[in-house]
C-alpha cells in the first residue's frame, strides 16, 4: 500500500495529490485517465502527459511526491504545449519553460513548509497571463465522461468530426474516440474497484458485453479485470 491522498485543488478542474515518504519503494502503475499532471519530487518538477495505456512509474526509493492532476483539456493552456506533444511522456518542466524560471519554482517548493500549498501556488503562477482552457473542449470531455457518443458530442459542440479531432489532439493528446474509450475505462475501473461484478460493470458503463470490457482492460490497463477487483 502507498501513502496516497488527494483533494480538490484551489485551481478549477484539478485535484492535488500526495504520495508520502512512508510509501514503500517500487513501481506504481498509472492507468490512463485523459489527465495531465504537474509533479514535484525532491528537487524536480516534471509534467506527466496524457497516457493512452498503463504507465509503470519507476521508483527506486521511498520519497515524497506532490502533484496536481488537471482534468482533460485544461493543462495545455497552462503549459503552452499541445497535449499531443506530451502523449505517453514524462518530461522535466525545464524542457518546456526557461531553466532559470523552473529552478526558482523548484526552490520555492523545496523550501516550503507546506509543499502542497506551494505547488498550488506555482501552478497559479504559471496560469497568470495565460488563456483559459477552451470551454468547448472541456465540455466535450465532460460529455464523453458522462457516456455521450462522439457523434452527439460533436453535434453539441457545433464542430465537424474533422475539426473536433484536430482540436482534441491539442487539448487531450488524442482524438475524441480514444478519449471516450479512456473515460469509459475509468468509469468501469471505479465500478470494478467498488466490487461490482464484471458483467454488471460492463452493462452499466457502456460496454457491449463482458468480453468487450475484458479486451479494453487488457488493452488500456495491461491486465485482466480480475487483477483490479478488490480482494
Write up what this structure looks like:
By secondary structure, the protein is an alpha+beta fold. The chain has two domains: 4-127, no CATH class; 135-228, Homeodomain-like (Arc Repressor Mutant, subunit A), CATH 1.10.10. Helices cover 44% and strands 15% of the residues. The chain is built from ten helices and eight strands. It has helices at residues 75-79, 99-110, 115-127, 135-145, 150-157, 161-172, 176-193, 198-204, 210-220, 225-228, and strands spanning 4-8, 14-19, 28-30, 36-40, 45-48, 55-57, 65-70, 90-92. The strands form two sheets. It has a six-stranded antiparallel sheet with strand order 1-2-7-4-5-8. The protein has a two-stranded antiparallel ribbon with strand order 3-6. A hairpin with a 4-residue loop joins β4 (36-40) and β5. α2 (99-110) packs antiparallel against α3, α4 packs antiparallel against α5 and α4 (135-145) crosses α7. It is globular, with a radius of gyration of 18 Å. It starts with a strand and ends with a helix. 34% of the residues are buried. The mean pLDDT is 93.
Amino acid at each position: 500500500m502507498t501513502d496516497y491522498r488527494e483533494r480538490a485543488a484551489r485551481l478549477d478542474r484539478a485535484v492535488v495529490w500526495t504520495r508520502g515518504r512512508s510509501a514503500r519503494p517500487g513501481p506504481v502503475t498509472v492507468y490512463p485517465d485523459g489527465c495531465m499532471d504537474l509533479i514535484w519530487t525532491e528537487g524536480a518538477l516534471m509534467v506527466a502527459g496524457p497516457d493512452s495505456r498503463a504507465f509503470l512509474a519507476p521508483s527506486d526509493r521511498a520519497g515524497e511526491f506532490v502533484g496536481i492532476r488537471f482534468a482533460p483539456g485544461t493543462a495545455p493552456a497552462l503549459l503552452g504545449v499541445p497535449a499531443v506533444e506530451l502523449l505517453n511522456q514524462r518530461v522535466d518542466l525545464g524542457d518546456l519553460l526557461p531553466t532559470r524560471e523552473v529552478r526558482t519554482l523548484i526552490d520555492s517548493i523545496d523550501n516550503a513548509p507546506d509543499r502542497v500549498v506551494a505547488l498550488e501556488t506555482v501552478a497559479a503562477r504559471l496560469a497568470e497571463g495565460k488563456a483559459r482552457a477552451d470551454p468547448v473542449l472541456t465540455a466535450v470531455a465532460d460529455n464523453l465522461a458522462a457516456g455521450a457518443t462522439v457523434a452527439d458530442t460533436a453535434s453539441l459542440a457545433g464542430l465537424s468530426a474533422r475539426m473536433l479531432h484536430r482540436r482534441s489532439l491539442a487539448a487531450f493528446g488524442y482524438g475524441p474516440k480514444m478519449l471516450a474509450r479512456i473515460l469509459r475505462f475509468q468509469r468501469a475501473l471505479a465500478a470494478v474497484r467498488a466490487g461490482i461484478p464484471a458483467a454488471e460493470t460492463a452493462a452499466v458503463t457502456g460496454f457491449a458485453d463482458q468480453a468487450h470490457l475484458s479486451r479494453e482492460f487488457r488493452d488500456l490497463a495491461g491486465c485482466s479485470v480480475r487483477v483490479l477487483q478488490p480482494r
